[in-house]
Amino acid sequence: MAGYICLLLLIVTILENLSMFIPGMPQVLQPTSPLFTVLKKGAVYSLVAVSMNLLNGFTGLFSLGQAGFMLLGAYTYAILTVPAKMKDQVYYLFGGSLLKTSLVDIFGAVFGTEGVGRAIAMVLGVVLAIVLAGCVAAFFAYLIGLPVLRLKSDYLAIATLGFAEIIRAIFQWQRLGPITNGANMIKGFPTFTSFNITDSSGQVLFRLSTFVPFLVSSICILLIILLINSSYGRAFKSIRDDEIASEAMGISLSKHKMLAFVISSFFSGMGGALFAMYVANAQAKAFTSVMTYEILLIVVVGGIGSISGSVIATFLYVACSEWWLRFLDSEMVLSSGFKVPLLRNGFRMVVFSVVIMVIVLFFSRGIMGDRELRLPGISARPVRPKSADKGKAAANAAAQTVTEEKSSDEQEG
Amino acid sequence: MSAETKKNQESALHLENVTMQFGGVVSVNNLTLDVPKGKIIALIGPNGAGKTTAFNCITGVYQPTNGLISFMSQPMVRTYPRGKDAKIYKGEHKDTYAGQPVLTPTPDQITQLGIARTFQNIRLWKSMTVFDNVLTAKHMRAKQNVFSAILRTNMKEEKRMREETMDLLKEQGLESFKDELATSLPYGLQRRLEIARALATNPKLLLLDEPAAGMNPQETFELADFVHEIRDKYDLTVFLIEHHMDLVMNISDYIYVIDFGSEISQGVPEVVQSDHKVIEAYLGIAED
Question: Which of residues 366-385 of A touch B (CB under 8 A)?
Answer without folding.
Answer: 370, 382-385
